[in-house]
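Researcher: Structure prediction, please.
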Amino acid sequence: MSIQIGEVIAVMGVEVSLRAYENSNLETHFYNGRRYKGVSIREFISIEHGFREIICIVEGEYLDERKAEQVGAQVRYERKLKARPIGFFENAKFYDGIKFLPKIGDPAKLLSEEQVNRIFERKANSDFVIGKLMKEEIAVSLPWQKLFNSHLGVFGNTGSGKSNTLAKLFTVLFDKKIDEIAQHSQFIFLDFNGEYTGEQIVQSNRKCVLRLKTRTNDGDKFLLPEEEFWDVETLGILFQATANTQRPFLRRVISEREKFRDYPESLNNYVRSIFERVLMSESPNPEALELLKSLSKNLELCKDLVVAIHNVGYNNRNPGFFYKTQHDSHYFSTGKNTYNDYFSELVEAIDVGEVGGFKELQCRAELKLISDILYGFAQYDHINPLLRRIEALKNDFSKVLAVGIETTNSKAITVISLRDCNQDVKKILPIFLAKHFYNSHKERVSNSSPPNSTMHLVIDEAHNILSQQSTREMESWKDYRLELFEEIIKEGRKFGVFITLASQRPADISATIVSQLHNYFIHRLVNDRDLALLENTISTLDSVSRSQIPMLPQGGCVVTGTSFDIPMLIQVDKLDGDKEPDSSDVNLEKLWS
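Model: Predicted structure follows.
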């Protein structure tokens, strides 16, 4: 039995209108020893429809003016409610979705707290609790099996509790399931602000933390297998190579290296031959000469050779090379004579020593460009920007990436902190890391259907790398960056790859990526563009929940998506001081006291 508070007076599509009785105005009701909450916005009511109870959520209320028939009688007001069906009870079990609609005259009743609890009941072990329903103050267990088998989005303005929610989700998960997770899954956290490098999420001994730094030389390095480094896709990502000219050039560099990799002296012989071909060419090329000077410095060749090559000039009026001495200039009349006088012994003695990684890449790229220019295979102006980017970025990337034999990481959780990296590395490296882990995981599960393991990529402050508003990069590079993540989020699920995104500005992220997320934790957002994006991309977000997003308190969020029957307003529990991410507000009262 329950308290009847009204009856249905109109059904227009899925909008139900009810006339509320006078007793519905009370805040709390007690009936037969049970406590009932009164009718207000976002409260649940049941409408008896035969042997079923149709559950509706109240979305609005208003007063309808009615005058008595007698002349001079007082105006009488009736309270009207607007509600929307969300599911039904059958055999004491709640089913979500609109399968039945009420009829005019059906009685409306209040729901007891036990019935409200059953609406949010989950088949899970009822132990994955991150907070309470904001209005009902009922601890609700989230369906972790469905939640982490999907793409997640955590959105909210700064200070809204977004970082706490992200950390709470994974803290509770690892507290409950870390031993099982360690056997079958891998979690990668791309941490732009260094918020999860301490005891957050999981104990420090259960995770691998890489603190990458470009400002100093004492940071950790991400170890990259040699065969993966010498890959056109990898190098194209790191140095933003254009698709039509620079990537084919890198492909030729890699192919040439692969061809002669078994010959120890191949690089020395290559450098010697390039020196000879440039200085003895019958058609002297000033661009090749400048590249040769750059190569001699980058390879740190012997000082005498570096000085000698820098004393070579090019005469524009009478095209040809000349060699400057202290007292005179000697023209390369036939090329051979002057070369023999000043360079033959120095070139024969060239020994580049041990080079690897980024230094070898720069050396081989310069050698290949010189060779292509001499044979007319490449335009200097098209390829030179790539070489300049390699020269500008190699020092930074060599501080955070190491090329060598890959070692096995036995820990299931890896946190990669980019806090002490400059903007160039912060923009490029996460794209490369995402591709690395995605492709590696695909290879591991390629012969297993369904996948026998999962990989979860967690990107905090995702607008840093998924923005489609950036004007600091070429359009072709922006398209490649977004297409990579769109492929992961569209195709990754079949390989057991799942992404969790957290961002202050969801409108800055590609709408395609946001729309492919399955479940959302939405904290306070006040920007109209952010709210419009959510309205257009999240089909499960109802109008009442959306209207409350700009006014949510700190820690409060709307939870909606494919894993939830109806949107919920949850107040997420705050983590303990040593577990919360390093993103707390400054306490000015304590600081300035």
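Model: Residues 246-378 form one domain.
Researcher: Thanks, that helps.
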